């Protein structure tokens, strides 16, 4: 399976290199949907030049990146394009190996449940076979690398790509079972933007389950938690000492997006990302990787400066849930909504800024519609997942008490 | 729990959509056309009114009386021009300086991608001359522009004379709060583009020009003037600009106010305004004017120098003096007074014009239709595409084939890359390959470009024959439905995006392409559908619009003339894309033509 992956990587790198050399690169790097004030490359360059002049990069409220990014690019500024292409490639490779291992785990678990007779007798068509799961890792890598959103983010040199790489490595190390490494990557990802902290819960659940430890055992939970918490503290402390400035300096600026306007009630939206963790943990505690997928999607939708790079990360996971396709109900309408909104973003921007006719409300409406489309898409996948689980345990052909065919209705 | 999750209601809706699809589509299409035709009738069309307060309540007494001086300047200019063959730069500089302006010149040059047959130019180089009248007590932060484009085919000498006389008159006044720039450009639109690019310090079209020595602040508004004789019977106003952009409606209202005040006859699209909108005659005439405006806006050409100003968010109009066979004629003083009045009112502006509409349609000079009222027309047309796509999706879903099936037939997506590649070839090859073509065939470059365009366009029709060798034979019946679904969504997206920025182009293309796109299928009378599809392809729409345009202007074309005009229009379209950045050519070749080819592939699906 290495050859197709290498081919996909080559194609992806070629497309990105071609776009870097074309005149579109500058245009893309100024698009509001692709770069945000938190991830813009221009601001990284600004911060680096401020550092070179001996001024603190954080003065002037232009630079919002972490000190680690400064140190990384201080040495790599001349190879910036190469760095971003490599990060994309690394993300794809990490996802590829992660999903490969995950499929093995899924198949093993399915076999175990079949032997334990947990499934209803007539669900043969819902059981997954290794044959159909063979190409999924390659498709995941393909979906990530050739997604127009990812390509746009890479060409714009948005640091969101680096965040995606860290989260992808976190997923890889979690699935491989190494608590220490996954803690490191989670700490790095959280350090850059606060939201990946919510991935702590599904990561913990997965590690506990793969070690066959009873999740209710308090001691085991505490050990893992302590491990991760201490690593996070270690990182924050190191950065504090290294640059002599509270590295949480950028935190106040992570407050609500300019698009929504700063309003006390919009603080709820900021906390919204964290609200969903507990209910999802309760419902999906048997399926931590699906939980992780939904959590990443929730982060991408509700974070304060969303860009298309965040959307690209969770979209890469769609091939993993390919078997849910038959239970998805609104996929056509939702795909149309997402495509239409993506196309209308630049059109309405043009109308607002250049034609002098529309105003920010139009642009805001499209952002809202895009988010509504994403929310409906995620809830559709959630519903499909739960429905399949229900069918697996209760049988595919449900009959009501009087023998007629019953319908499953979500209440 | 609502429509999206309640299975009972969803099934009912699905049945409704599938059963009533054809009647709904027809109804929606007819509603779209009917809505458009109804735009000229009173409830949908409103009287224009001045929205900007700063221009509404001021009283202006025009005092321009330099008619003789204007004529003298015009005669001198014409004589010097005939002697030197090009713009008499030295004479203009001298005269402007004597009138009291700060004079600057700008030279520019440009090599066109291929020789322009209509204007007979290839390597263009010229000089723009402009004089700035500095406002006596203001800080030079804002300015107004009066421009006279001089081309080789239209000398426009009376306009230059009037410009100089007005400059002399304005120089003696003390009430100016904004600087006024008097601009005379050579090679009309090319010179204007060079000046604007240098003024705003950008380079969008690859023009080489010398930098400007003198500037006058942010331009608030501009008026372009074209006069062909000493006396005029009416003034024609042109509003459509590059890519269908329009100036703020207030500028047009301003012009109309002064025409009424001075008793000047004003025309829009060359037609007089109907007085009576209550009977049927007025609206019918309004429909003619509206259709003319739609056709001009859809072409995306800058119909005058003002069209290039609009891109920089400078509201601009072009005024053309028409000398027809009417009895009552106005001399240059009347035109000068109207211009003086307009400039005095524009002088009062505190902010850029922004109160009135930027997107509108004009059935008449004093009537307009705003965007909120005309958009549903294109909405109904695009609804047809949406309904058809929904129906196809449901049929595909029932048959059990989805678009994401792991082992699904590659058939549906096979025609996509070749169609897009044909579009790319149509965009890139004609200009790139013109030299090769002229070496092998006895044609001029412009003809080579046009003939290459037509050749590639027609070659695309042979595409289905070649892609069928690649299409697999599994599930042949469903393959075309998936392809048609993708093509319908693609077409709807493109037309929607186009209609948002240039309503006329979107509506025109939707009217012709939507019915045949909805009807295309491999079964049924194939030759009839093929003929219909060819008749509604983008090129045929262009041809048809040319005939319609001349018909509406009461100068109908014969077939041969029409074909010649069509070829000239193709060449102009490609040229304008390269010289001014007009978007019609790339939109049609890279966007709509590949989409149309997909429907052609659906029609010939085996």
Gist?
With 411 residues, chain A is mainly alpha-helical. Chain A is 65% helix and 0% strand.
Which features does this protein show?
heterodimer, A: 411 residues, mainly alpha, 65% helix, B: 606 residues, alpha/beta, nine-stranded mixed beta sheet, three-stranded antiparallel beta sheet, globular, endoplasmic reticulum (chain B), transmembrane (chain B), GPI-anchor transamidase component GPAA1 (chain B)
Report on this model:
- The complex is a heterodimer of chains A (411) and B (606).
- Chain A has 411 residues and is mainly alpha-helical.
- Helices cover 65% and strands 0% of the residues of chain A.
- In chain A, helix 5 runs antiparallel to helix 6.
- The longest helix of chain A has 36 residues.
- The radius of gyration of chain A is 22 Å and the shape is globular.
- Chain B is α/β, with parallel strands linked by helices.
- In chain B, the strands form two sheets. Chain B has a nine-stranded mixed beta sheet with strand order 6-2-3-5-4-7-10-8-9, sandwiched between helices. In chain B, strands 1-12-11 form a three-stranded antiparallel beta sheet.
- In chain B, strand 8, helix 8 and strand 9 form a beta-alpha-beta unit.
- The longest helix of chain B is centred in the middle third of the chain and has 29 residues.
- In chain B, helix 2 runs antiparallel to helix 12, helix 4 packs across helix 6 and helix 15 crosses helix 21.
- In chain B, 54% of the residues lie in helices and 14% in strands.
- Chain B has 22 helices and twelve strands.
- About 1% of the residues of chain B have low confidence.
- In chain B, 48% of the residues are buried.
- At the A-B interface, helix 16 of A face helix 1, helix 12 and helix 17 of B.
